[in-house]
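Tutorial handout. Part one gives the primary structure; part two gives the three-dimensional structure as C-alpha cells.
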Amino acid sequence: MKILHQFIIILFLLFVLFLQNVSAQDYTEANLPEGAKLRLGKGTLGEIAYFPDGTRFTVATSIGIWVYDSLTGKELYQLTDHTNGVEIVRFSRDGNTIATKGSHGSVLLLNAQLGNHQITFIDDEIGYYNGVFSPNGKIIAVQCAEKYSYLRKTLRVYNVQTGEHLSTISEPSNRFHNIRFSPDSKILATWGYRQLNLWDAFNGQNLKTVNDPCEGYHDNQINDVQFSPDGKTIFILSRVYITRNSRGSSWTGNVGIVNFRSVGTEEWKQLERTRQSLDDEGFSSIFFSPDGKLLVTIGKSDGKVDLWDANTGEYINSFIGNDSSKINTVSFSENGRIIATGGRDGTIHLWATKDGVHLIPFSGHKGSINNIVFSPDGITILSKGSDNTVHLWDAMTGKLLKTINKYTEGISNVSFSPDGKTIASWSYDETMRLWDASTGYLLKQYKLNGLKGSVNSFQFSPNGNTFTATCTWGMACLWGVATGELLNTFSRHRHDIVQVDYSPDGNTIVSRSSDSSARLWNGNTGQLLSTLTGIKGKLYGVDYSSDGAKLVTQSSENVVQVWNANTGQLLNTLTGITGNVDGVYFSPNVNTIITNIYEEDTDDGVYLWDGETGQHIEKLNGYSGATSLGSYSPDGQIMAIVDGHGSGVSLFDISKRQHLNTLSGHVSLPFCGGGTISDVRFSYNGQTIVTSSGVDGTAIIWNSKTGERLKTLIGHTDGISSVAFSPDGKTLASGSNDGTILLWDVPQ
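Part two.
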C-alpha cells in the first residue's frame, strides 16, 4: 500500500510538471503546422476582449486567438480553429460561447471555457462577413454574400445552441453595411447608404423602413444606428456633404449629424454641437453608457467627447481629451462611473463620468490607441495601439503591468544573413525586425525614419549590412541594418524613384526614376557616382549582370540598351526586336541577355541575345506566352520563368536551350485572370527550388533537375509574399501577409 501511495504521488508530480511545461511552451513552437519548426511573430492584431468572468482576455489575430491571464498577462494558450485568421471575437452574455469571425468570412462558435469547436456555419455558395450576438446571447445574425461577391445580400439568423437556421432576411438594395439588435433581441436593424430597415429577427418580416433624416442634404449617408437601452429611442448618425459661409470665408466638407426620435413617433430631433466653427465636422461616432442613461459622442474634427441625456438629448458635459490630440476610442468601466479615452498621441486618460474630473493618465504606447477595454471588475484595463502592442494596465494606479508584443503587420520580405544565424524581415507597418534563426526570438526592431508614405519596395544588400527602400511618395533611402540608422537619401532625381537594386557585390546601387533617368550610387554610403545618359524613351526596367560590370535597361519604343555599370557609358543596343518588350534580364553567364516579348499577331515568348554584340541568338523552345518573374540557379544553368498569369513555372536549361519541366501546383483563380505565384527561389546548392502563392498561402519545394514535387508546406492563414533558403539549404523561411514567418525543414 505504501509503495502504491508513493507511486501515485510520483505520477501526480509528473502530471503537474507536464502541465507547467505545456503552459510554458514558447509561442514560437506552439500549434505549429506540420513540417514547420518555428514561428516568428504572432500575426496581425484584431480585437481584444475580456472573458465575462474577467479572469482571462483574448487577442484576435490573423493566426488564431491568443488567450492571456488577466492579472499577469501571461500567455495561456491559443485557439486555432479558423484556417484563415480571426478578426472579431464576440462573447455571449452568459460567457459560455465565443463567436469568431475569420478574415475570409467564416463564422465559428467555440466553447468559451474549453476552447473546443461547437458549430461552423458553412455553405459552399455563401461567404460570411460578420456575426452579431443578440443581447440575450441566444441567437446570432450573420451577414452573407455569394462567393467571390462583395455585396452583402442576405442576413441569416441562427440559434446559438443548436445552429438551427431561424430566418433569412433579404434587402431589396442587396447591401447590408451594418446590423444591430434591439435591446430585447426581437428586432434587427439594418442600414446601408440612405435607408434603415427594422426586421422581426425570428421570421424575417420587414416591420418598418425609415429614410435617413438628413435626406434633404447633398450626398447623405447613414453611418451608424443605436437603440437606447430601453429600446424606446433610436439614434442615427449621418454623414452629409455641405458648404458653410461665414464673414466672407467658406468651407466645404463631410459633416456628421446625429438625429433621434422615439420609436413610436415620426418627429426627429437633432443634437446640437456645443462648439461651432466654420470647419467643424460634427460627430464621428455614438454609443451608450452601460446603464443606458448617457449618450456619448466623439467629435470628428476636434476628437472631443460629449455626454448627453439619452432620453432628452440634452447636453450634459464634455471632456477636453488628450491635450491637443484627437480621441480615437472611448470605453466605460462596467459600473459606468469611469470613462477611458485613448488618443493619437498614445496616451490613455481616465475621467469621472459624473463631473468630468480628470483622474489619471497612462502613457506607454508608441502610436495612436485604437481600442480600450475595462475588465469586468474594473481592476485592469486593456489597450491596443497602432504600434502593434497590447498593454495591460492597473486601472487604479496607471501602472503598466504587461506589454504583449511580437504582433506584426503582413510580412513583405524575408532574408537570411550571410552566416545564416539571423533572419531580417520587413513588414507593412514599416518596421525592420531581426530574429534569431535558431530560437525564433526577436532580437531587435525599429521603425524607419526618412520615408514619407508607405513602402512599396525593399531590398537587402548582398552582405546584409545595409538595405534600401522606396515609398509611395517616390523617395528612396539607404539604412544600416544593425542600427537602423539612415545613411543617405537618393534625392538627385527630378521625379519619383520607382526601382532600387544592389550590384551583386553590393558596392553600387542603381536607381530608376519616373523621370526616365538611372543613377549609380555607392552601396555603402549612398554617394552619387554617375548618371546613365542617352536613355531612349521612358525607362521601364534595369538589371545588373551577375559580375556587376554591366547594366541592361528597357525603355519605351521597345529599346534595350547595355551600359558599363562603373562609368555609366553606353556599350550597345539590342537590334532586331519586333515585339513589345515586357522584361529584360542578364543571365548568370553575363554574355546572354534574356527578354520577355509579346506580340499581338505573331509568336511571343522568351528571346536570347548576345550581351557583347547585341545580336539576336534564338528563341527558347517549349515556351510561349507573356512572362512576369524570373530566377536562376546558382550555377546559371537553369532559368525559372513564371508565366504572365502566375499559374505555372517553366524550367529551362540555358546552355542547351531546352525546356526541362513545368511546375504547377498552386491554386489558380480563373476569374482573376490566372494564377497566384508570388515568389520563386533556388536553394544555394541549386538542387531544389521553391514556389510560393500569394493567395492560397502555400509553398512547394521541387527538385530543380527532375521537377518532382518534394513537399507542400501548408500553415499560413494568408498569402505568402516572400521565401528564402538558409545558406546551408536546410531551412526555408516563408513570410506571409498573416504577419508571421514560418521556418520549415527542407527535404535533403
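Part three, for discussion. Residues 367 and 387 are 5 Å apart (CA to CA). Confidence is low (pLDDT under 50) at residues 4-24.
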